[in-house]
Design goal:
Length: 266
């Protein structure tokens, strides 16, 4: 991280750059086992988005407030879970991006919850069809486990150790995703894990969390960079800037280097 993330919510309207890219973290409020807070996905998505925007260090890339609710129906058996479901999240994302795009050149959604995937993919597909410059990126790391296991516990130990009840961290269902997902889709998380954990938090550490976060940030920086450059001239009408969304996350070794400020942007 080099610079400071520009936060959309902190600005006044005349301060907005003429050709802004807005990064919107999308989280969830759902059970994360007996040891991690309900807002885990929102915290991770926001942290990744904020750090990615800070790493880019441009004055035309902003981070929006996190979408704190998501599609978490698979966790609904557990108290604390608050879910919009997929259709409402889809619609929410569509309307947020339509609204953003009346003044922003482009929008990048940063998704922190696997259960949001159908809504995120569906909304982005619809918005691209409508002519909007929008794409999305996951908070993804190689070897990450499924839910409230070592990966998320490490991330939270790095980001918010005060919220981790490490003494209550125990393994849940540790079978592979291929084995678990069909059961989970049919009966929810409770069908495979009594404590809500999919994975094993044993061995989690803040240091591992820092490395995971760095990897996630690098991938998101790559997606934002590929959608940001070249920036259109601020007087150019936005609809012409529609391009196919980058289809995948690429490694971003060069992404921590400062990006040149595009002509006309401030
Ligand atoms: Zn999670």
């Amino acid at each position: 991280m080099t610079g400071r993330a520009l936060r959309l919510a902190d600005l006044t309207w005349p301060e907005l750059p003429p050709s802004a890219t807005v990064v919107v973290p999308v989280g969830s409020l759902e059970q994360h086992g007996p040891h991690l807070p309900l807002e885990t996905d929102a915290l991770v998505a926001e942290a990744v988005a904020v750090r990615a925007v800070a790493a880019l260090d441009r004055d035309d890339v902003l981070v929006a407030p996190v979408v704190a609710y998501g599609a978490s129906g698979e966790h609904q058996h557990f108290a604390g879970t608050v879910s919009t479901g997929t259709p409402v999240l889809h619609l929410l994302l569509v309307e947020l991006v339509r609204s953003l795009r009346t003044w922003a050149a482009r929008v990048v959604l940063v998704n922190g919850h696997g259960g949001n995937l159908d809504a995120v993919r569906g909304a982005v597909g619809q918005l691209v069809d409508e002519g909007h410059d929008v794409t999305w990126a996951p908070c993804a790391a190689v070897g990450a486990d499924l839910h409230a296991g070592r990966t998320e516990t490490s991330l939270l130990l790095h980001l918010r150790p005060d919220l981790v009840r490490l003494d209550r961290a125990v393994a849940g269902a540790t079978a592979s995703a291929a084995e678990l997902l069909p059961l989970l889709r049919a009966g929810g998380v409770v069908a495979v894990s009594a404590n809500g954990v999919l994975g094993d938090p044993a061995g989690a550490s803040a240091e591992e969390g820092r490395a995971l976060l760095e990897e996630m940030v690098g991938r998101v920086v790559a997606v934002i960079s590929s959608s940001v450059e070249p920036a259109p001239s601020p007087v150019e009408p936005a609809p012409s800037s529609v391009e196919p969304a980058p289809s995948s996350v690429e490694p971003a070794p060069s992404s921590v280097e400062p990006v040149e400020t595009p002509q006309g942007a401030r």
